[in-house]
Amino acid sequence: MIVHIVMFAFKDENKIENTIKAKELLLRLFGKVPTLQSIEVGINFADETRAMDLSIITKFASIDDLNAYAVHPEHLVVVDFIKQVVEYSKVVDYETL
């Protein structure tokens, strides 16, 4: 099993609206991207300087499935939106049992 975690820091302009829209778009990927086995999307409520605004945890059967997700047309639409509204992101990919 491959776990793919991404955390996003959104730009200040329209931050709340863009964070909510990103969450909705990401959740809609489930069922549209065949290799995506599960997805969790959370909007942060911690009030700390090190906190990120939104995180996703996705799971895939293999690295090949993660790579297929990365280039899937439905995912790329979401990526295009997120790139416009996010300052930066952090990623962690790992294999688990």
Please summarize the sheet with the most strands.
4 strands, antiparallel
What separation lies between the terminal Cα atoms?
6 Å
Q: Using DSSP, what is the number of strands?
A: 4
Percent of sequence in beta strands:
25-35%
Unreliable stretches covering 5 or more consecutive residues: none
What's the pLDDT, averaged over the residues?
A: 97
H/E topology pattern? EHEEHHE
CATH second-level architecture: 2-Layer Sandwich
Number of domains: 1
Fill in the CATH topology.
Answer: Alpha-Beta Plaits
Backbone shape: globular
- Widest sheet, order of strands: 2-3-1-4
Radius of gyration: 13 Å
The percent of residues in helical segments reads: 25-40%
Quickly count the helices.
3
CATH level 1 class label: Alpha Beta
Class from helix and strand fractions? alpha+beta
3D structure, described in words:
The chain is α+β, with helices and mostly antiparallel strands and 97 residues long. It has one domain: Alpha-Beta Plaits, CATH 3.30.70.100. 36% of the residues lie in helices and 33% in strands. It is built from three helices and four strands. The protein has helices at 15-27, 63-71, 73-85, and strands spanning 2-10, 38-43, 54-60, 86-95. Helix 1 (15-27) packs antiparallel against helix 3. It is globular.
Keywords:
alpha+beta; single chain; 97 residues; Alpha-Beta Plaits; four-stranded antiparallel β-sheet
